[in-house]
Design brief:
Distance between the termini: 32 Å
Helix content: 55-70%
Structural class: mainly alpha
Shape: globular
Order of helices and strands: HHHHHH
Number of strands: 0
Strand content: under 5%
Largest sheet: none
Length: 147
């Protein structure tokens, strides 16, 4: 796993899933069993599907961030101007979130992998103090390399 992760950091625009399918299914099965121990069947199934969906969203987001794909800002679909406007506003929100995720994650890869850990929710780096000023970190790393 560590070698795959190291390769992943050395090639920031080459996405590899860190977790192989067998590991993902193992985690899913384990979580399902644990949930089943504390929840009734219907809630357990709902929670398991939610957990699996969150994992898929995370992997898809990680894939998008590691490509040079840009989400469209405007849509030509919609039957009237108000619908197109609403779709466009939603798309802008999603596109801006992915751009923020990409910026944050690329800082983790390209500037310093000791910071910017919060991938899905970049605001969490503010909460945990792992979102320093990029210029300061670059200056500090440059100073360390010259010593």
């Amino acid at each position: 796993g560590k070698e795959i992760h190291r390769t992943h950091h050395n090639k920031p625009y080459f996405h590899v899933s860190i977790d192989p399918p067998a590991l993902l299914l193992g985690w899913l099965f384990t979580v399902h069993i644990l949930l089943r121990m504390v929840l009734p069947w219907n809630l357990c199934l709902t929670a398991t599907v939610g957990y699996a969906t969150a994992g898929l969203v995370y992997e898809w987001s990680h894939y998008i961030v590691h490509t040079k794909v840009r989400a469209p800002f405007h849509s030509s679909s919609g039957s009237d101007a108000s619908e197109r406007c609403a779709i466009s506003t939603f798309q802008k929100s999603i596109a801006n979130l992915f751009l923020q995720m990409r910026d944050n994650h690329m800082r983790h890869h390209l500037v310093d992998d000791e910071f910017w850990f919060a991938f899905s929710l970049p605001v969490m780096d503010d909460v945990f103090g792992s979102n320093p000023d990029v210029r300061e970190v670059k200056k500090e790393r440059k100073k360390e390399r010259s010593e």
